[in-house]
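ARCHIVE CARD
SHELF: 3
SLOT: left
DATA:
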Amino acid sequence: MSNHLKRILTGIILILIVGSILLWGATIHLQFLIFVVSGVALWEFLSLFFEKSFFLKTFAIFLSIPIIFNNFLPLSLIHILIIYFWLINLIFLFIFGLSDKNRSWQDFQLIFLGLIYIPLVLQFFKDIPFKEICYIMGIAVFSDTCAYYSGTMWGKKKLWPKVSPKKSWVGAFGSLAGALIFSILYGSFAFSMKWYLPIFLAIVLNLGAQLGDLFESALKRYLNVKDSGGILPGHGGILDRIDSLLFVCAIYLIIKNFITI
């Protein structure tokens, strides 16, 4: 089976799984899906830096549970993050002061950054209305898909070779075109937006999608890694699949504070 066919089949399976949970699942089912996706992506993110440290990666996934299921706790997210910051740093203090293990302070800060980068962002999906989840995910998917196919077929001049040797200017404009088409069509169908809002959102969110993708590409180039993982045939790892979605979701939530969608 070709890599392209694997990519298509994997995408269809992901759409069916996520779509089924969004349409027919309860909130707890969505949270469990978020936990699974977040846990795998967090494991992949930390594996980029320390592949063999099973304890630190498992510890990070354990810490993500209260972040994702925070609605069952009497603590706000900011309180949880403050507790985690000091918990992680106090663990470093005692390991450094009481044992001979040479674990760097930076390793522990990567756990904290990973929790903000992935589960903190993904947990917001449990509180976002269904039609807005579809909009956010649609922007990310159409941005990535149109960038991939337009860049593969017509892309020659590279966008930023040092960061990503495969991404092209044609792919970047194809990504923007895909986001614009989706935003205008879906925005007109699902929202009562003024005519310019779908265009504005598409441009800003697509910029976020491309920057989120480029950030992970830069991280992989910096660490000399091709993919974050291999769990998704034709796509790489979970983090490779959601890198743009993470930034799109964050930007969308900020925009919602200033405009009515």
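SLOT: right
DATA:
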Amino acid sequence: MIKNIIFDLGNVIINYNQEKIISNFTDKEDEMKYIFDEIFNSPEWVLMDLGDISNDVAMKVINKRNKYKYEKLTQDFLNEWYKKQFINREIVEIAKTLKNNGYRIFVLSNMANWTYDYFKNDEFFSLCTGIVISAHEHIKKPDRRVYRLLLDRYNLNPEECLFIDDDKSGENYETANRIGIKGRKIIPNQAEDVKKLLLEFNIKI
């Protein structure tokens, strides 16, 4: 019987559309490619999610590697990109209903410190019994240790947990499934698919 609902943040609770985010900073093809390749897909991005380097350090390393060609763009983007996301209110309403129906709400998300700090006062987080953010723990999904950390910290039975995550690769939910947590990946930012997943596990809202 499911008692605990574990939410990812990016593309579940927080809309994280890279193309839309980038469009706030440039419409030039070379600059868009630069942001995708040298920022979003950089090793520094992973290290920021792990909480192992600061935003400022990442900025310096990325600029140096690219010989300062896009220095101002890099600075503007890294300082402001996370403010171009927004909370998915439809899914927050689902979480509220779940909470009111007696389910406990948890978060397990890969996220840098300053991104979480920007959103942490939103009403969604007041619904949560527990929150595990990769940058706080220096471990990120799909490393099975971060799932075990959540389960152990909050004394959760994996068989009583449903995990909602959008990871395209499937690795995040597959790791969860391997340790007994139920769930599947959802269509990013789709409240209707969240409802469908809940119904698959006989959770009515």
